[in-house]
Every structure is written in C-alpha cells, then in structure tokens.
Amino acid sequence: MERTELQKVLDAAALERGCSVAALSFDEDDNVIDVTITKDGGAVNLGDCEYVHRAVLAAFDRDVEDYALTVGSAGISGAEADALLKDMEEEK
Description:
By secondary structure, the protein is of the alpha+beta class.
C-alpha cells in the first residue's frame, strides 16, 4: 500500500466528518496501521471512526494489500473502538 495514497484517503474521509488525522503509525512490516483522528471543538464519536475505517476498506482491498487497520481517537483506544463497534453490530 502506498503511504501517500493512504494519507489522501484518510485525510479526505476525516475531513468529510469534520475531523483530521492526528497520528498515523505502521508496524515494522507496514501492514498493521493505527490511525488516530481528532475533531476541533468536539468529540470524535464511533461513527467518525467507522466512517474513516470504511473509507480505507473501500479504497484498499485487504486481500490484495494484506493489512490490518485500527481507527480511534485520542479519547478512545483502537481496542475500545473495536469492542464498541462489535457490540453495535451484534445489537442489529
């Protein structure tokens, strides 16, 4: 996955939700990606994180690119966001 292309997708998706990318990190193999988003004047919510996450999934095929992605905010860890998303999906 080209990092500049990923950054463009992240920035565009975050902006659409009124957010910005605060941090982007990769593991040593560049296939585990951790994204932190923030929102000026407000709190990032689960919907914001999910929107950015889904934008990346739509842009980069995980079967081709072989990556794992976590999107969270400074106020919530990636693991907490994953757990909340799982709970929401189970409630549907």
